[in-house]
Design a protein that fits this description.
about 550 residues, globular
């Protein structure tokens, strides 16, 4: 550990600073504004027990859920001391901001630490291969990624599973150099899969490549040596025990069935077949530079070619392991899931874009003045675009449109009746003095309950019977174009689970067009000064909201 921490580069301050800036996004809270996060609800309400309860399961593997549950444990115990262990009373106590806020903050600090770990792993790899100068460029390129910065502000799994993948690659490189790190490497790979299943797609090709083929001695006897067999057996045993495959086989099978069915296929962007695959690959190539800059993306291609031409044998193979991991992820996950969301391109960005580092360093070290000055321009353009993306993401969080809605709601008289539509990840926080109700046709027991919000089972179109003073529509549904497409095509937008029927969407259209005795008094949108650009990430950050008042 001392050797690992010695000489920690200053570049790790970049992910630390970007992670801590705007870390209070949406805090204090009763729930997070980040969809699919394990915090604060899943970890703070003890969802870990689902993994090991016979016949039950949690949609995500248990490792990071365990980590965040341990972070939340002091607050869970405090709530137990206050109200006892009755499930209903305990849940109502725990979803209060006094508990959920520190649970969420703890999860975000864990994410920041893991983002720092990712950048440090990138640095360690490139330091071994090309020295400290190139390593600093590689780490900086990895750090200046707005998607990484966003997920470092959440309890989502993107940063944790990428941390374990990058740690696996560092140890894999050590094994390929002859160091006895097989067990640690395989356990890190196991931790990655136990954090998020899709990690296996990135490691499927590179683990045998690094553990066997890239070693100085590659004979069968060496491949089957005891250390490797112990590592493989240890990793398998840990996975079977921790995943619930041994202790809860029925629940484990049910989770796999969900993952291979609706969890992955319901949200596919493109159809199967050659035409869909070509569209998918084209989208990947177009969207990848958006996670950094076009300059770095082009330079990374040149960096891969540079390694292919400059290095020979095993040394070349070791340097191409991250690139091989990105190819593996594409083959075994991207082509199957058929999606190019920002979070599903994060592995490609962190694994491939640092290959721009030796190219940039080479340009800046040219003896010819013209090439060197040209290199300064190229680097400035790359850093400027990547830095602007990160600054835009931070500004999007700092000036989230929900803050504007909250300021308006705080001016309303006490007991004002406000009817809200949307999930908790897409709504603002509400003043306790207001009478807030959330109306929908989905069963009350299946809803994610919100503190100080009354859940109502009813039809949205019967609003004339309820007569609320105000109506608030969340960023899930505050989109005129989306509403029109839903009504014309019958297509449910990505990520929408409630209000997915045509009657509800007809209600939203009538409401937005002023046909229901309500007029729009606020259209809260993300507005940032040039050259910043709002970063709508994972369907929540930077989303638009509508507030309507009764009376014409």
């Amino acid at each position: 550990m001392r050797r690992w921490l010695s000489g920690v580069p200053a570049v790790v301050l970049v992910p630390l600073a970007t992670g801590l800036l705007a870390i209070d996004w949406g805090l204090p809270c009763t729930d997070t504004w980040a969809p699919d996060a394990l915090s604060p609800r899943a970890s703070g309400l003890g969802a870990l027990v689902e993994v090991y309860t016979p016949g039950h399961f949690h949609i995500y593997p248990p490792l990071h859920l365990l980590v965040l549950t341990l972070v939340a444990l002091p607050w869970i115990l405090l709530a137990v001391l206050r109200v006892g262990t009755n499930p209903g009373r305990l849940e109502q106590e725990l979803i209060q901001p006094a508990y959920m806020t520190p649970v969420e903050l703890g999860a975000r600090l864990v994410a920041v630490a893991m983002a720092v770990g990712i950048v440090l792993c990138v640095y360690r790899l490139w330091e071994r291969w090309e020295g400290a100068r190139v390593a600093r460029w590689a780490a900086l390129i990895a750090a200046l990624n707005p998607v990484l910065v966003y997920y470092a502000h959440t309890g989502n799994l993107e940063v944790p599973y990428m941390f374990w993948i990058m740690a696996t690659l560092v140890l894999l490189d050590a094994v390929a150099r002859g160091e006895p790190r097989e067990l640690a490497c395989v356990l890190c790979a196991t931790a990655a899969v136990l954090t998020k299943d899709q990690s296996a797609a990135a490691l499927m090709l590179v683990l045998p490549l690094g553990l066997v083929l890239l070693r100085p001695s590659r004979g069968l006897t060496d491949a089957l040596r005891p250390r490797l067999l112990v590592a493989a057996g240890g990793g398998l045993a840990v996975f079977l025990a921790a995943s619930g495959a041994l202790t809860n086989p029925s629940g484990f099978r049910s989770r796999l069935a969900l993952l291979l069915g609706p969890a992955s296929q319901d949200w596919a962007e493109v159809p199967r077949g050659l035409a869909g695959t070509l569209v998918l690959l084209r989208a990947l190539l177009v969207k990848l530079p958006l996670q950094s800059s076009l300059v770095f993306a082009l330079a990374s291609v040149a960096g891969v070619v540079w390694i292919l031409l400059r290095r020979q044998g095993l040394e070349r193979g070791r340097r191409l392991v991250p690139f091989a991991a990105a190819v593996s992820f594409t083959l075994f996950f991207t082509l199957g899931a058929r999606r190019t969301d920002e979070r599903f391109l994060l592995p490609h960005a962190l694994l491939v874009l640092p290959y721009a580092a030796p190219v940039l360093d080479g340009l800046l070290r040219q003896r010819w003045r013209v090439l060197r000055y040209g290199g300064y321009v190229v680097v400035a353009l790359g850093l400027g675009a990547a830095g602007l993306g990160v600054a835009s993401l931070e500004a999007t969080l700092l000036f989230d449109p929900r803050y504007e809605v909250e300021r308006v709601l705080s001016t309303l008289a006490p007991a004002t009746r406000v009817e809200v539509y949307g999930g908790p990840h897409f709504l603002p926080r509400f003043p306790r003095a207001l009478d807030i109700s959330r109306v929908g046709t989905d069963p009350l027991a299946e809803r994610s309950h919100m503190s100080s919000v009354t859940e109502v089972l009813g039809l949205p179109e019967e609003i004339a019977l309820r007569r609320p003073d105000y109506v608030l529509v969340s960023s899930e549904f505050a989109n005129d174009l989306l509403i029109q497409q839903m009504l014309e095509e019958g297509r449910v937008p990505y990520g929408v689970r409630a209000y997915s029927d045509r009657a509800s969407w007809a209600f939203f259209r009538a409401l937005s067009q002023g046909e229901l005795s309500y007029h729009r008094v606020l259209r809260a949108r993300c507005r940032l000064p040039w050259p910043l650009d709002c970063k709508r990430t994972h369907g929540s950050a930077g989303g638009e909201l509508w507030l309507f008042a009764r009376g014409g």
